[in-house]
Amino acid sequence: MAARPKLRVLCFGDSLTAGYASMGCIYHPYRLKLEQMLAMAFPDMDIESVDDGRPGDTVKFGFLSRMQKNWNPLPPETNSNCPIADPPRKKGDESYNWTIVLGGTNDLALGVKPEDIFAKLQEVWDIPLRRKSKVLALTVPEVGIENGRERMDARRNKLNDLIKGYKKDGYHVFDLNTAVPFFAMSESDREAFWDDGVHLTPDGYNLIGNMVGMGLVKILEQERAANPPPVKKRRVFRDDDKVFEEEVGDPTSLDQGYVVVRRKDLD
């Protein structure tokens, strides 16, 4: 019996990937809903997802070394000062088919230039891409802060335009900023999905998982359609097409002919 194909996904980023909510009292990563979406769409596959989200981490100063650890077969060092430990890796672990990257919110808050964030993101993406893992880059969602909103929006939009405009084999983009807005939501939806204007509620992280899941499912279905599995050829046996003398006659008459069953009739 043939083994079921596997789909392993790494969800990588900061607190939005970790599912940080209620000032750190709750962690509800979006990968939980993402995995459910993938399992429903592809029941013939074994789905496994891992989240490596570290609250407070930045693309410029922390992402690169952490991404490298995810592709190192030896167990990474654990930072005891962080509530989210590095994902467990042991020698012999399989690689990831997909790596979903979300980061930049903390960098923008610290005043890092969009161009500098984007340059470092390219280095981060390149680690899985060089190892034949496809990358799904998420755009940076807006934050619900009115003070300085226009300037912040301009810098975030600049970064998101760079993310959406990047082209490389195996690289894909999902526009999370548009899919899960803050200001465009109704007041009731903001109360349900957003926690503090930067982080989301567990329902909000489920919403992200739904949205990103639908985006990834669409990409995977397009790939399947473009590369259908080979059709297994029917094995041909000698005399399969030969007409035997016993077959001639009236099949409704009991005294004429025999019933001949060929191997192809059983396939």
TrEMBL record:
Pfam families recorded: Lipase_GDSL_2
InterPro entries documented for this protein: Ester_Hydrolysis_Enzymes, SGNH_hydro, SGNH_hydro_sf
Lineage: Eukaryota, Fungi, Dikarya, Ascomycota, Pezizomycotina
Keywords, alphabetical: Hydrolase
UniProt cross-references to Gene3D superfamilies, sorted A to Z: SGNH hydrolase
GO molecular function: phosphatidylcholine lysophospholipase activity
Keyword field contains Heme: no
SUPFAM superfamilies registered for this protein in UniProt: SGNH hydrolase
Residues in SGNH hydrolase-type esterase domain copies: 11-206
UniProt keyword Hydrolase, yes or no: yes
Superkingdom assignment: Eukaryota
This protein's name: SGNH hydrolase-type esterase domain-containing protein
